[in-house]
Write a structure and sequence with these properties.
Elements lengths: L2 E7 L3 H12 L4 E5 L6 H6 L1 H19 L15 H25 L3 E4 L1 E6 L2 E5 L5 E11 L3 E3 L12 E2 L1 H4 L8 E5 L3 H12 L3 E5 L11 H13 L2 E4 L3 E7 L4 E6 L5 E6 L1 E4 L3 E3 L32 E3 L10 H15 L13 E3 L4 E6 L2 H6 L4 E7 L4 H6 L5 E7 L5 E8 L2 H13 L4 H5 L10 H10 L8
Parallel strand pairs: 1-2, 1-6, 2-3, 6-17, 8-15, 9-10, 9-15, 10-11
Antiparallel strand pairs: 4-5, 5-6, 7-16, 12-13, 13-14, 18-19, 19-22, 20-21, 21-22
Length: about 475
């Protein structure tokens, strides 16, 4: 029986990063993945393929609507969805093959199969044909991620009533896609198909889209998506979803208590995700999950069994690939006796629509609820020279700072390349910078990041220059 210092179950962003860091620190490391490719949901049916389709659909949208303004004359472009899917698959294949190289480079033993605990130091691996083997491991990291959530009222058939996984491989552009859930996944994939010509109707239980983010972001994103043809139903509870094989009917109850029906040819269910802890054999080692299926851990990400750790979507916190990566590195370094840290409040969140939405720190609603004295500054992208040059004038940068100390408490951006811009805010907040600190930094002109500088100026005695 092979023996390891550390075994990681799950090869998503958290798992493979944990395995690499463990190997770098000198641990003999094994990685167990139930699917045939590494990378988990993110690389195979999540972050990477969705961004590939988002980019392809944005190119098409620009060719259709913006090239003429730029002085580029072309025949009316047509959608080749099959080629978009093929390109997306190629991006995924290249990325996952890169992980295979990294495993070999770091001398990590990879096992394909379902990993489960026999006891605290023995792990059973069952491959796709049902063949079993066991390995011994002094320590184990659970990094099995999450899967799309569903409810009894919504019977997912993977044909017409679909999740994000199926939405990445459609054979046709929907005529009318109903999106249940106005969160990140629904808005991203809805945006893909809206750009390609689909009518999109969103049914959301909350009172806005991207409801966990600052309200300003949801309002601004709604303005953009309405221009793409989105229709929105807020404070609406889905009671039934039915498909006859060609048409889907969503029955819901609105805020007035009225019953409404929405019909379309596809229904994307994006109501969240739940931890994937099935068949791990947690009962064999005495590890319990909470009401949402999450594994309880302490500040060291250690479970109730001292030599077993858990990271990423299976524990509390934002279900984000980069959060899982940070936790994977954190656990490896804890095992090695180091003293790493994670500042959970400074893990950014991003929505990859266009314009992108990105945020870090507290929302204005959270500051108000906490009774925190704050000041706010904002700057619209339409006042930015770089944005006008690229015709990306939608959106706003918003900075929240402590009213007394001027320390930046939250940054919220909807605009071009917001996903990249938010890193500046994370760095500033990690070092507890004030709004004036960022305002006094020289930002290259013309750039999109000048919007953040101007927002910081606006938060500092209303000193924005270009608005």
């Amino acid at each position: 029986m092979s023996q390891y210092d550390v075994t990681v179950i799950g090869a998503g962003p958290g798992g493979y990063v944990a395995a690499i860091r463990c190997a770098q620190l000198g641990f003999k490391t094994a990685l167990i993945e139930k699917y045939s490719t590494l990378g988990g949901t993110c690389l195979n049916v999540g972050c990477i393929p969705s961004k590939a389709l988002l980019d392809s659909s944005e190119h098409f949208h620009n060719a259709l609507h913006n090239f003429k303004e730029h002085g580029i004359k072309i025949d009316t472009p047509k959608v080749d969805l099959a080629q978009m899917i093929t390109r997306k698959d190629g991006v995924v294949k290249q990325t996952t093959e890169g992980l295979n190289y990294l495993m070999k480079k770091n001398k990590i033993d990879v096992y394909n199969g379902l990993g489960s605990f026999v006891d605290a130091t023995t792990i059973k691996i069952t491959d796709a044909e049902g063949k079993e083997q066991q390995i011994k491991s002094a320590k184990t990291i659970i990094a099995t991620g999450s899967k799309p959530m569903s409810i009894p009222a919504i019977p997912i058939d993977k044909e017409r009533i679909i999740t994000s996984t199926e939405a990445l491989n459609l054979k046709e552009v929907p005529k009318h896609m109903i999106v249940i859930g106005g969160g990140v996944i629904g808005m991203e994939l809805g945006s893909v198909y809206a750009r390609l010509g689909a009518e999109i109707t969103v049914v959301e239980y909350a009172d806005s889209i991207i409801p966990t983010m600052d309200k300003t972001m949801g309002k601004e994103l709604q303005k953009v998506l309405k221009k793409e043809g989105f229709k929105f139903n807020y404070k609406t509870k889905v009671t039934k979803v039915e498909s006859n094989g060609k048409e889907v009917t969503v029955t819901a109850e609105n805020a007035k208590g009225e019953t409404i029906e929405v019909k379309g040819d596809y229904c994307l269910v994006s109501i969240g995700r739940k931890p994937y802890t099935d068949s791990l054999g947690l009962e064999n080692v005495g590890i319990k999950t909470d009401e949402r299926g999450r594994i309880d851990v302490n500040g060291q990400l250690q479970t109730s069994v001292p030599n077993i750790y858990a990271i990423g979507d299976v524990v509390k916190g934002a279900m984000l690939a980069h959060k899982a990566e940070e936790e994977g590195t954190f656990v490896a370094e804890v095992m090695a006796g180091q003293k790493p840290h994670i500042h959970y409040n400074l893990i950014p969140g991003v929505v990859y629509t266009w314009p992108e939405v990105a945020a870090v720190g507290a929302t204005e609603e959270e500051l108000k609820a906490a009774g925190k004295a704050y000041k706010a500054g904002s700057f619209p992208f339409k006042a930015l020279g770089r944005a006008r040059a690229s015709m990306d004038i939608d959106g706003v940068a918003k900075v929240l700072a402590d009213k007394e100390t001027d320390e930046i408490l939250g940054v919220h951006i909807i605009g071009p390349r917001a996903a990249d811009m938010i890193a500046e805010a994370v760095v500033a907040m990690e070092y507890r910078a004030s709004a004036e600190d960022v305002a006094r930094m020289s930002h290259a002109h013309p750039t999109y990041t000048e919007a953040l500088k101007e927002a910081c100026l606006a938060a500092t005695e209303n000193r924005a220059i270009h608005v």
